[in-house]
Amino acid sequence: KIKRGIKVNTPKVNLDKALTDEKWDYISFQQASHFSGLKDTYMPYMKELMEYVREKVGPDVKFLFHSTWAYSEDSNHSGFKNYDNSQMKMYNDIIAATRHAMKIGDFYKVIPSGTAIQNGRTSELGDTFCRDGYHLNLIYGRYTAACTWFETIFGLSVVGNPYSPRGISERQRIVAQQAAHAAVANPYEITPIE
């Protein structure tokens, strides 16, 4: 948890403690990345989990669904075999599972990080958004996801936003912002970034 700009880690916190720690505005749900495109892994657990969380936090909290990204083509993650080691199959399966989740869950909005990353991959940056085949690049990969979260939650365009993390190039910043903006506008389809 970040308190006054400082990250604080508290070990061994259970779900009840996290949910009642403070009054939340939003709570996000997502599936583990290697299962995120497998619709059957969402049920009945997601609906039961959402009911449990709602009971703990009350009716005013908005639920978000975080749609994750497909792995890099060269990923060696064991879960990539669920998608025949194909980035596009994984992306398409994640989109199908996300659409399914949005129909069965009580979600306020989808956070299309996976589509933002896939959009960014159409740029000259290519398939470089993951640092190890599945975790995001620490600079522009994470920044792309952060831009997606920001625009989804606040409804403000990130295009032209002057903030960027240390170490990012101007071109990477522009691609990340455009990729995120396009994903929020079209969460279920890839938009080429030039």
**Shape from CA axes?**
globular
Count of extended strands: 5
SSE order, as H and E?
Answer: EEHEHEHEHHH
Low-confidence stretches: none
Strand order of the largest sheet: 3-4-5
Distance between the termini: 36 Å
Mean pLDDT: 96
Strand portion: 5-15%
Helix content: 25-40%
Q: What quaternary form is this?
A: single chain
Give the biggest sheet.
Answer: 3 strands, parallel
Structural class: mainly alpha
What can you see in these coordinates?
- The protein has a three-stranded parallel sheet with strand order 3-4-5, sandwiched between helices. The protein has a two-stranded antiparallel ribbon with strand order 1-2.
- The longest helix is centred in the middle third of the chain and has 18 residues.
- It has 194 residues and is mainly alpha-helical.
- It is built from six helices and five strands.
- The protein is globular.
Put the structure in a nutshell:
Helix content is 40%, strand content 8%. The model has no long low-confidence stretch (mean pLDDT 96).
Keywords, please?
6 helices, 194 residues, globular, 40% helix, two-stranded antiparallel sheet, three-stranded parallel beta sheet, mainly alpha
Describe the secondary-structure layout.
Layout: E1 2-3, E2 6-7, H1 15-20, E3 26-29, H2 45-57, E4 62-66, H3 87-104, E5 109-111, H4 113-121, H5 140-154, H6 170-185
Parallel strand pairs: 3-4, 4-5
Antiparallel strand pairs: 1-2
Helix pairs in contact: 4-5, 4-6, 5-6
